[in-house]
Amino acid sequence: MQIRGRLARALGVLACGPFDADVDQVLSGLLGSKKTDLQFDALTSIAMSAWPQFEGALDSMVANPDAGTLVREDAQAIKKEQAWSRWNENVR
């Protein structure tokens, strides 16, 4: 596993606590990367998160025609799951 992937997942665990703008900025940057593996790492972290602030980033990814089909589908699935769980409100 790449260092960046491990870092993204660690940030996802941090994203279960109170909102932190620095963590949000890093994960949003990974999500906006042109590299699919980094986008998937960011999506994994967002899936673990409890921050509804990521909803807009997921919407952007779903609507981004330059993102790969699998990335867009994953973003859509995470958005749906997070909406269902109310962004993991039990861990916020």
Low-confidence spans: none
How many distinct beta strands?
A: 0
CA distance, first residue to last residue: 28 Å
Q: Give me the strand/helix succession.
A: HHHHH
Radius of gyration: 12 Å
Question: What does this protein look like?
Answer:
The protein is mostly helical and 92 residues long. The chain has one domain (3-87). The chain is globular. The chain contains five helices and no strands. The termini are far apart. The model has no long low-confidence stretch (mean pLDDT 86). The chain is 66% helix and 0% strand. Helix 3 packs parallel to helix 5. The protein has helices at 3-14, 21-31, 36-48, 55-63, 69-84.
List keywords for this structure.
mainly alpha, 66% helix, 5 helices, 92 residues
Task: Briefly summarize what is shown.
By secondary structure, this protein is an all-alpha fold. The chain has five helices and no strands.
Could you outline the blueprint of secondary structure elements for this entry?
Blueprint: H1 3-14, H2 21-31, H3 36-48, H4 55-63, H5 69-84
